[in-house]
Amino acid sequence: MNQTKTLHLQPDANGIARAAALLAEGAQVAFPTETVYGLGADARNGQAVAGIYAAKGRPSFNPLIVHVPDVDAARALVEWTDTADRLASAFWPGALTLVLPLARGHGLSSLVTAGLETVAVRVPHHPTAQALLHAAQMPVAAPSANVSGRISPTTAQHVLDGLSGRIAAVLDDGPCPVGVESTILSLAGLPTLLRPGGLPAEAIEAALGTPVSRDAGDAITAPGQLASHYAPGAPVRLNATSAQAGEVLLGFGKVTGDMTLSASGDLAEAAATLFDALHRLDRTGKPIAVAPIPQTGLGAAINDRLKRAAAPR
Ligand code: TXA
Ligand code: MG
Questions:
Q1: So where does ATP get bound (predicted)?
Q2: Cα separation of 158 and 151, whole Å?
Q3: CB 55 within 8 A of CB 49
Q4: Fewer Cβ atoms within 10 A, N terminus or C terminus of the chain?
Q5: Is residue 92 a contact partner of residue 121, using CB atoms and an 8 Å limit?
């Protein structure tokens, strides 16, 4: 693809206006959310969306999440339900993505949905994401702003490391506070967890008063959930309590390593640190060993990403 100079924009009024204008022109712009940096484009414009796939080198059958500023904007795109309403009241804006049937007259490019009858929608909480969505006045399709198959970006520098010269701009507002992608829940049938993420499934179950299914069935429901994903260049070994010869160790709690996800064993801190730690350890070129992480709360999302980072490829 053509080389362009990637603008490094500040999250002030000028930067937001510039980013919104670029989106209106059909360009691809990376922006921060509370989970990870997204690579945004006008979700109504097929060419703009195609530019996301081109920049990421992503297989085009993966549907994308559509970002909107508020519930009303989401309701223009999907068949809204009482369950969606309850979850949106509890968790939007925030790290929850809902998959719902497309509304009539939704106006989205079929590239965004990859031809499915459903679409994933999210209202992010991050002030810069909110400012951009309000300024742009369009639904913004955005996967994580990394080269396909690589570690998700939680800083603007991570974005530039992978996509500099391939996208129009990055809006830089520092590190993402949550650090793992949003939780994806399908409401197209019975509530089903498609991807554990920044909102623990336990919180969703508490709000609904019922358990959610964790059995997403076959790949059609979550085509982006390839076994090997979020992967550093070097091999990754899980549940390690010490480093073997040549390895670097990523610690947690009592397991101290060359770096730690959280010395105090705090899962929110570990989620926020995860991708930056993997980016840093990846740069050592050495195999990476990772301490055990409990499977509760945010631990489910952390272990999901680690399992994919460690999967054979
Ligand atoms: O935190 C996040 O969710 C970030 C930020 C930028 O919002 N976005 C993100 O997008 O992680 P991405 O493209 O890396 O992951 C989107 C996931 C994929 O696994 C995809 O298969 C799933 O959402 N998805 C999208 N639309 C879907 C649909 N209609 N049905 C089922 N899964 C869908
Ligand atoms: Mg991704």
A1: 58, 62, 118, 144, 152, 195, 230
A2: 9
A3: no
A4: N
A5: no
Q: What are the pocket residues of ligand 1 if the criterion is a CB atom closer than 6 Å to any ligand atom?
A: 33, 35-36, 38, 62-65, 97, 99, 113, 116, 118-120, 122, 142-144, 181-182, 184, 194-195, 221-225
Q: Within the chain, where are the H helices?
A: 13-24, 46-56, 71-75, 82-91, 110-113, 127-136, 156-163, 201-208, 267-283, 299-310
Q: What's residue 58's pLDDT?
A: 78
| Residue 62 marked in a binding site | yes
DSSP state of 158: H
**Alpha carbon distance 182, 129 (integer Å):** 14
Per the CB < 8 A criterion, the answer to whether 149 and 155 are in contact is no
Q: Is 305 within any annotated ligand binding site? A: no
The pair of structure tokens assigned to 4 is 């362009």
Q: Is 58 annotated to bind ligand?
A: yes
Distance 287 CA to ligand 1 centre (A): 29
pLDDT along the chain (313 residues), means of 10: 85 98 98 98 95 86 93 98 98 98 96 92 98 98 94 96 97 98 96 96 96 70 55 90 96 97 97 94 94 96 93 80
What is the DSSP-derived secondary structure letter of residue 220? Answer: G
Q: Which among 140, 146, 176, 170 has a CA at the least distance from the CA of 64?
A: 140
Type of residue at 226 = L
Burial of residue 183 (CB within 10 Å: 0-12, 13-18, 19+) is buried
Taken in order 93, 204, 306, 249, the sign of the CA dihedral is: positive
Give the closest residue to 306 by CA, choosing from 260, 256, 238.
238
Distance CA 47, CA 173 (A): 27
